[in-house]
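The pair is quoted verbatim as follows:
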Amino acid sequence: MTNHEHQMDRVNGSLDRLCHRYKNLSDAIGYLQIKPCTESTPKAMTDGFCITFNPDYTESCTEDQLDTLMMHEILHIIDWHFAGSEDKDPYLWNLSCDFRVNSILRRLNFNLEPMSFDNPKFDDLSPHEIYDQISAIRAEILARIDECETTINTTLKAINGRIRKEDL
């Protein structure tokens, strides 16, 4: 059995455990395709119809971590996160949806990875509301970076004006 086949068995086992734990889940995921992929998938992803996972990553996961990973992707599908993002920055939209999904996972007592995007202040917000807040924060940060760059450039010009070649 190849590693991809073994990891496919593990992922299917995870889906079985989740369907047993959440009885209505099988109706929501019965149509899904599940496939391994390593080229551009760091962990796992979904387009709403297929969950693609990286077998090299899942190989290092415990059953608990694999269940969390699969449920994370399933929640993206259930909440239709793959739709409604046409006018949004793809990175910020994915981040907003991850905050939403991880909020649900935390409240369902799944164990999130230490660096997961999770903040209780987003618990009752939709991905669109989270996106708006993150976008506002991003704009504020970019404005501050611009201010810092202006200050640095002004300071460098002042320093350069005071330094003579013979002083070097």
